[in-house]
Hints:
Shape: globular
Keywords: ATP-binding, Nucleotide-binding, Transport
Strand content: 15-25%
Strand order of the largest sheet: 6-7-8-3-9-10
Largest sheet: 6 strands, mixed
Structural class: alpha/beta
CATH topology of the domain at 1-76 and 189-248: Rossmann fold
Number of strands: 10
Helix content: 25-40%
Number of helices: 10
CATH class of the domain at 1-76 and 189-248: Alpha Beta
Protein name: ABC transporter ATP-binding protein
GO molecular function: ATP binding
Order of helices and strands: EEEHEEEHHHHEHEHEEHHH
Radius of gyration: 19 Å
Amino acid sequence: MSYLELESISHYYFSEKNVTHALDEMTLKIEQGRFNSLLGPSGCGKSTLLSIIAQLIQPTEGTIKFNGTPINDQKISIGYMLQQDYLFPWKTILANVLIGPTIQGTLKKTDQQRAENLLEKIGLANISDNYPDQLSGGMRQRVALARTLMTEPALLLLDEPFSALDYQTKLILEDFVLDLLKEYRKTSLLVTHDIGEAIAMSDTIFLMDRKPGRIYQRIDVPDQVRQLSPFKARKHPEYQKLFDFIWKEMTRLEAENEPSTL
């Protein structure tokens, strides 16, 4: 039994004049404790799928099961990390990390200790009383991750969380995030259009086609690459082989989706 299972997910967006077929018959299985990526071109429905998994929108068709039971029949915590950190500028770093239990009305003394421990894990314990505008972009994303982990999510969704960062900071944060998620044994699903990022961070990559969005291919990253940090993985020969293969597949999919000039 899969930890998370999507069965024939299709989704349509309706307006007064148009119907957009965003996703078509999406079926995939995710195992517990693994890091997975949805890789595909812009407009293939990656973010729509994350929103459906997070139960922010209901799919037009299909079901999602968590541990074999429809996800709508359960109360589970799902963490959602976005491109922007969305920290509250008027709250301290510690208060931002505590925002989950604060909003839920469940804040306890032990939560503050957990938050302080998380800040220590991410290397920001000494600035817990600072405010977001005093932090760099990479530091803010670390705080956003700590805030997400504070809710003890059963599943972590990441929607291009490194895309707004400079390349060096992005590489550093990839290593840091993956180490932390492995330590906490989190099951994760990353949305990205960056082939290198998907290979370097993932156990499994789901390559998507578009118009409408669908799973085109499942790719398991070789053990030789998976066992390395994202930075070191990029230097392995198997990384380059897989990069070239995925590049060719994505180029072909793009060509097939180009409108005919005839």
